């Protein structure tokens, strides 16, 4: 992640194994002065990561920051500066929230616009009898191919579920998922 913030906590190559779960080379940083959202579905590894960090030798830092662990992403839309997504014990992305959201678009339009070239510009597409909705990280190229498409800024949840869907084993992938439950603040 390219940022001008000084990290007050850096986690590098954190590994922790249990019988049926493991953290795998988890690396991220907590920028000074930022609220960092640590997101992932239930069982993704958020609590294991935090508990493992807290079990390490004490940190000595004069900087201040907030590390907010949740799977309720609407909380983070309002307060987070940085997002770190964990799934199955691995970090999928670490990015400034606004850069992440500004670089993606939810696109809606006619399914007949979905040529092979157009499809390659989307990370996920859902088609219905009424058209399609898709997530893209290449909005300028999509706009050039589909000038009449509706483009909207995605929610954190849209990007998170897309990234988790790509990370899931093929047998466990699904097109939709609900993100619900309590959150913890550390």
Description:
With 186 residues, this protein is α+β, with helices and mostly antiparallel strands. The chain has two domains: 7-98, P-loop containing nucleotide triphosphate hydrolases (Rossmann fold, 3-Layer(aba) Sandwich); 105-152. It has six helices and eleven strands. The protein has helices at residues 46-54, 73-79, 97-102, 116-119, 139-145, 156-167; strands at residues 7-17, 22-31, 35-39, 66-70, 82-87, 90-96, 105-109, 122-128, 131-136, 150-152, 184-185. The strands form three sheets. It has a five-stranded mixed sheet with strand order 6-5-3-4-11. It has a four-stranded antiparallel sheet with strand order 8-9-7-10, with helices on both faces. Strand 8 and strand 9 (131-136) form a beta hairpin. It is elongated, with a radius of gyration of 18 Å.
Residue share in β-strands: 35-45%
Task: Kindly report the name of the CATH homologous superfamily of the largest domain.
Answer: P-loop containing nucleotide triphosphate hydrolases
Mean pLDDT: 80
Distance between the termini: 22 Å
How many separate structural domains? 2
What helical percentage do the residues reach? Answer: 10-25%
The whole-angstrom Rg is 18 Å
Shape: elongated
Strand-and-helix sequence, N→C? EEEHEHEEHEHEEHEHE
Q: Give the structural class.
A: alpha+beta
Q: Please list the strands of the largest sheet in the order they lie side by side.
A: 6-5-3-4-11
State the name of the first-level CATH class of the largest domain: Alpha Beta
CATH architecture designation of the largest domain: 3-Layer(aba) Sandwich
Number of helices: 6
Topology, number of strands: 11
